[in-house]
Write a structure and sequence with these properties.
single chain; alpha/beta; 3 domains; 6-stranded mixed sheet; binds manganese (II) ion
Amino acid sequence: MTTLKFIHAADIHLGRPFSGLRRSSPELGNLFLQAGYDAWDRIVTTAIHRGVDFLTLGGDVFDAPNPTVRARVAFKNGVERLYDARIPVYLAVGNHDPLKSFPESLRTLPGLNLFGPNPEGMRFAGQEQTDGVMIFGAGFEKAVITDSLVRKFRRDPGLDLAIGVVHTNVAGTSGHENYSPCTLDDLRAAGMDIWCLGHVHSSEILSQDPLILYPGTSQGAHINESGLRGCHLIVAQHGSPAVAEFIPLAPVCWLRVDLDVTECHSAEDLLDDAVALCSGTSLDADVVRAVVVRLNLTGQDGSQGLGTIASDPEFFEVLSERLATLSLPVFPESVRDSTRSSASLNSLKDEEGFLGDFLELCRRSVEEPSMRDHLLGGVQAELLKKLHRRYIPAELDLERLKNDPKAVATLLDEAGDLVAGMFLESRETGS
Ligand SMILES: [Mn+2]
């Protein structure tokens, strides 16, 4: 087998509307409606331009079990374009587009290889040299699959390369239904060289050897799907681990942006700073056509009441108008107020009672090593109850933090501020 090159995408969710957008205009509505379809078109175009051998899809191609006419046509057009370029498609459907309701008219599209409900291997017969390549897959029969599909996969002996395609939740990733659950060990046990997954909407490489990855959704549809979105180009060679390259393709990029208002003295300052911040995103304009931001005000809000100003609908309107004229247009999703009112926070530090004690505890945990270790151990234990070790972000890594008191101090400072802010808020609203 010579080098094999293919693209893996998943969770395209054709026909999915965007959520959480307050502003609407005909132009914007159109842009956003089209974005998910454009991402799919770009996957197809990229596959053709890069001259890949095939395309694998890890499910949730459609957003709804009975896809809309536009979604069906878009999918059909894409598969046809790929077929014309001699690029076959291997699809393992997921919970949003299960086999039970997968449109009859699309099942037999030339060039489309649709996996059934039980794991099966399909030989890739693109070129003579790739005889030993097999793509294994299984699709969701119905929307809810609670047993593990992955555990039923087995590699055939004598293959040069085995690729698995499936929609699954690895290690109970939070924020996603625990459908077709499996562990990293289950994936390894199946003996595949590459696992191309779908279901989790963020792009993630879970293992390098064997290569196991989620490409993530190809177009984010709300603020919790922020950052660049796209697909993976995978290059495989017999005998060495496959290599994946992330290709950003989504035309709309959601971003969370923090704006420190400590130096802002008026609504005009706030507007200028917000515009300056949003015009400074270093996004590739060839890929990203528009940005949707959640603007989060941070820092000290003196006595100007900037938080109140920012929640004024007219402020939002003026901000929207100014951001829309940037060379890479930006649209605010919302403006959030996480500022601290300096006067009230300072007085709280010396206050007797819960919050004063809490802030004192934070201070001591920074200064006393034994308290710090005790706290870190407790935090780690709590995190492990909810998350697999792999999902614990690097900044919360216990071993690293033990040797980095400065990082602990920063985290505790932030935690103290956060709790104090929440405490103040609840006291002001009386809840
Ligand atoms: Mn999905």
